Amino acid sequence: MNDTKILKPKPRLSTLEMPFWDGCNEHRLMIQHCTACSKSVFYPRACCPYCHAAALQWIQASGRGKVISHTTVRRTHHDSFNKEAPYVFAAIELQEGPCIYGQLIGAPTEGPSLVQAKVEVCFVEHRQGQKLAAFTLNP
User: Fold this and answer.
1) Number of Cβ atoms within 10 Å of the Cβ of 107
2) Closest by alpha carbon to 91, among 124, 62, 113, 75?
3) What span, in angstroms and rounded, lies between the C-alpha atoms of 67 and 48?
């Protein structure tokens, strides 16, 4: 059997997304905010999806939100995540408005629905030198 460590996939880093990834490494959840229509946006993009203005600036989000959907992952999409399975993966509506997806660290994989549960961001090591936003239940 091969004991080679399987590395997690690298995020595709581009200039447009670097404020998000740098924020993760600094334990800050960075999202974009449109100065033209005052809506917050995630995932990073060049123009606002609501008003189409190129008036997006980076802001630090509160990191708080609620679960709007979730699933328990039992079979991972990549072998490097096998040690973590089963785990809960969720769609989170941030207080600022946009939806972001992430793992719910420590969440129960069985039992009642977690929809509407309050959460807050945490940052986990994804690969050496790169952290990733995840969430924990906030009682």
Assistant:
1) 20
2) 113
3) 24
Identity at 79, one-letter amino acid code: D
Helices (H), the chain: 18-25
Q: What is the pLDDT of residues 36-61, one digit of tens each?
A: 999 999 999 999 999 999 999 999 99
Q: What is the CA radius of gyration of the chain?
A: 16
Token digits of residue 51: 């008003």
Q: pTM to 2 decimals?
A: 0.89
Q: Per residue in 53-98, pLDDT tens?
A: 999 999 999 999 999 999 999 999 888 888 889 999 999 999 999 9
Rounded to 5°, angle at Cα 128 from 90 and 93: 20
Residue 12 has which token pair? Answer: 């595709």
Domain segments of the chain: what residues? 18-137
